[in-house]
Structure formats: C-alpha cells, structure tokens
Amino acid sequence: MDMEKLIARINELSRKNKQDGLTQEEIVERDELRRRYLDNFRRNFRQQLDSIKYVEDEDDNIKH
To answer: Which domain holds residue 14?
Structure first.
C-alpha cells in the first residue's frame, strides 16, 4: 500500500472511531497501519540524517 492510501485509510478509521467506534478487526487494522506508517517515517528520516554532510568535515579533508 502506498503512503497516500495508507494515510487515507488511517484517517478514515480515525473519523469512524470518533463517530461510531471501531470493531475489533478495525482496531487491529488501525494499529497495523499506524505501525507501518511510523516504520516508514523512521526509515525515511534515518535516510535523511544519514545523507547529511557537515561542511566542517569537508573543510578538514581539503586541508589535509
């Protein structure tokens, strides 16, 4: 499931929970979707952090 569909389904379940409540199956689905969303978010954030280059490090390499 792509992220847009995943987020849309999470939001759909959230609205339903506020209005009518969720069945046990929907609660399990919601929890799984949230876990997948957070795993993806953490993975992407980690990739962003890993790709950061410090200017000071590059300057030190040039001087040596």
So the answer is: 3-63
- Residue closest to 2 by CA, chosen among 52, 31, 30, 40: 40
Number of separate domains in the chain: 1
Contact 14, 37 (CB under 8 A): no
Question: What SS3 class is residue 21?
Answer: coil
CA dist., res. 47 & res. 26, Å (int): 31
**CATH classification at residue 59:** 1.10.287.540
Q: How far apart are CA 33 and CA 43, in angstroms?
A: 15
pLDDT truncated to tens, each residue of the chain (64 aa)? 799 999 999 999 999 999 999 999 999 999 999 999 999 999 999 999 999 988 876 666 666 5
